[in-house]
């Protein structure tokens, strides 16, 4: 787990830190590590647990106070929305999961959420379905929740986009977890059977299904670009539907 997190951090560091003009890197160059001192522009020091979480979002960059000093502290900056979009666009698309095939139909399902509401693919026909498979004791799952919540907030007034999170955990455990860690998706409890239906064994797994029930995006594991690509997929699907509506109305 730590190896995967530090791979992400290293990628962020390479992207955000100023490149050396000299083709041969200096041996004493500062390197971001778990033991590094990280603080904001006001001088407030961030513990590793906090700045590591922030780094996973892709919305922050780190710059050493003294690039030539291996013991240098790092300053954390929040990047602009424009810079974030450029950063995400420059990074690779998350690797597709092995549980689904792009373009194939998403098989019929029927589930009940923790509030007793029933959901089925039949009732969701014509809508964009965004699915997340997760469980409470999955660190990568919890790390991506803040970014997934932003998607729900972004499309909060759009009834044509539905967000459902299928959790493996029982209802009472989820209710306790959600008291301290809000997850804005519609939560389906005790969803192990649902995940097993698709053979899902890696978490988190994210899926976007279009208005006609076809799988358009799917990925497994933690990636700083997951939320970006989910949003990008939603935007493209909505644009496609708008073009279709315009063509239909003009006939």
Summarize the helices and strands and which ones pair or pack:
Blueprint: H1 2-16, E1 38-39, E2 45-46, H2 48-56, E3 60-64, E4 74-78, H3 81-90, E5 110-112, E6 118-120, E7 128-134, H4 139-154, E8 161-167, H5 171-180, E9 186-188, H6 192-197, E10 205-209, E11 215-220, H7 226-250
Parallel strand pairs: 1-4, 7-8, 8-9
Antiparallel strand pairs: 1-2, 3-4, 5-6, 7-10, 10-11
Helix pairs in contact: 4-7
Description:
The protein has 251 residues and is α/β, with parallel strands linked by helices. Helix content is 36%, strand content 19%. The chain has 7 helices and 11 strands. A 5-stranded mixed sheet has the order 9-8-7-10-11. A 4-stranded mixed sheet has the order 2-1-4-3. α4 packs parallel to α7. It is globular. The chain starts with a helix and ends with a helix. The model is unreliable at 13-27 (pLDDT under 50).
